[in-house]
TrEMBL record:
Recorded superkingdom: Eukaryota
Protein name according to UniProt: G-protein coupled receptors family 1 profile domain-containing protein
Pfam families found in the cross-reference section: 7tm_1
Ranges where the G-protein coupled receptors family 1 profile domain occurs: 30-305
Biological classification of the source: Eukaryota, Metazoa, Chordata, Craniata, Vertebrata
Membrane topology: Multi-pass membrane protein
Entry keyword annotation includes Transferase: no
The family this protein is said to belong to: Belongs to the G-protein coupled receptor 1 family.
Amino acid sequence: MPFNFTSTTDFVRALLGFVLFLLIVSTLLGNTLVCAAVVKFRHLRSKVTNFFVISLAVSDLFVAVLVMPWEAISAVAGTWLFGRFCGIWIAFDIMCSTASILNLCIISVDRYWAIASPFRYERKMTHRVAFMMIGVAWTLSILISFIPVQLNWHMAEEDEEGAAGNGTDYSDNCKANLNRTYAISSSLISFYIPVIIMIATYTRIFRIAQTQIRRISSLERAAEHAQNHHQSNDCSNENSLKTTFKKETKVLKTLSIIMGVFVFCWLPFFVLNCMVPFCQCVSDTTFTIFVWFGWANSSLNPVIYAFNADFRKAFSSILGCNKIFPSTTVEAVNFSNELVSYHHDTTLQKEAQPLAVQMPIPREEPSLPFDKDSVTSNVSLVLQSTRNRFNSTYQKGNQTTFQ
């Protein structure tokens, strides 16, 4: 029985089309849901941090609408079907991908600022500042995409000569064929500089979280020691150290997921993007596969950046799935556990802070005898004050939760 090559090719194309269709639909649904939640629920619009999440969702939505479908159809058909739209499509690709990456960078800076200087952040991070940061990201994305592409500054010399003579042929494929200068400069702006900033900010966030975890842990041990000073504390100290290690590991795991997903999706493409102008040693198929890896990041961003408690409740309300996330559920995972506190109701936390801060700690009189209960009470007050201030300030800086 002869091998039916045509049938095999058709099957591969059908399977490829199905996979790409699922990717596009998941990207559309996830990011549309984020936008719909913010439009419908006012309390989501009241948080400045969510403005950056929305800007990220819009950029990823543009990737799913303006970029993915055209390449998916061409991949299944085996040829570019949209003629001279290729030039505009390339500009959209560069703009939307760059905007998505720059928004991720802004989110990391916003979180670091909120955690490193929470009180200054509260004063300085206004709606106007947030809109300016978002505006800079989108303006930069447009400047490095549409202007160079429309003026053919991005093309290699042989393609540029053909374009100047209106001889550019898009009948078979739509390849950018970047020149060396544009490939390096655009990759620096679109990826390498943002990823360096993200690594620096998330590393600092981990250090700050680690310091706070150990500070609270030491206060907890001090309070427990004051309450049980007649008993052996070896087991207690060991359990406390294990808990501290688990919390630090969880923060590190969260940050690793954030950076790991981003780098895994985009790094291979930008390495190839800088290699191709210098070495024609990368096949079109390999390059296209890693392009799709980068675009796939847009389908993962809603899961990573918008699945905190507030957004989950909004999603369940929009989808009519309130039974999945009942309103009676109480969630209070501190930043020390998962990079960010998320609470269904933070009113009590906010009220507790000034009470704890303003509560005076009795001064110890040398002439008074030792009073175990008094010492225990004072240590507990310090511990509660630290916890309340920590929860109140650090929960404002982030909105990320992993299940």
